[in-house]
Amino acid sequence: MNQIANNVVLVHGGFVDGSGWQKVYQLLRQDGFTVSIVQNPTLSLEVDAEVTRRILQQQDGPTVLVGHSYGGAVISEAGTHPAVCALVYIAAFAPDKGESVNTLIADPPPGAPVPPILPPQDGFLFLDRAKFAASFAGDLPLYEAQFMADSQVPWGVSALAGAVTEPAWRTKPSWYLVATDDRMIPPPAQRAMAERAGATVTEAPGSHSIYVSQPQAVANLIKQAAAGAVR
């Protein structure tokens, strides 16, 4: 008898924390899913993957592992955990073996928006607060984007440099939501990573904060993955 994945683990990206998943969390809970949210320190990929595995260890059955932005690198590394039956990338990086966020952003296509990342301070990165809304959260109400800008989590440069060892998408089925108005990770780059991973791709209009602005689209894709990845 096939067992449907009833567990979902949500992994946030850089500059933000897990609270941005609240609307997605509520939608999934309403549909009967057990949902856990990882609070990555974003100090290093190795540590963030270990924190994620700790949450995966607590799951009682097949689990859909979801990552936004840098969280895609985390789930690529941690998703080899036996509890994981499906991976869902939300406007996320999907590094291959030996790749890091740094290598994936090293050669941006001509004309692509340049994220307003400030020079590192003591090994940490921030986005320019004045440009945060336009680059990261262009489809959110200004007050919400401003709050995200002012509550930024310092992103460790070691996390960007962390290379994936065995990418989980090579052995686990994956789904990918492309945010077509993203000004942090260019949509063509998202499509290329999704295609390389062999992911089932959905596109929706939205900024890099599509997980906040379009929670229903995100929840729908997660439910699709849960139904599609029977063990």
From TrEMBL:
InterPro entries found in the cross-reference section: AB_hydrolase_1 (IPR000073), AB_hydrolase_fold (IPR029058), Sec-Metab_Biosynth_Hydrolase (IPR052897)
Q: Which domain of life is it from?
A: Bacteria
AB hydrolase-1 domain residues are 8-220
Identify a single GO molecular function assigned to this protein.
hydrolase activity
Spell out the Pfam families in the cross-references. Answer: Abhydrolase_6
Transmembrane parts of this sequence: none
The UniProt keywords, alphabetically, are: Hydrolase
Please state the span of the N-terminal signal peptide per the UniProt entry. Answer: none
Q: What is this protein called?
A: Alpha/beta fold hydrolase
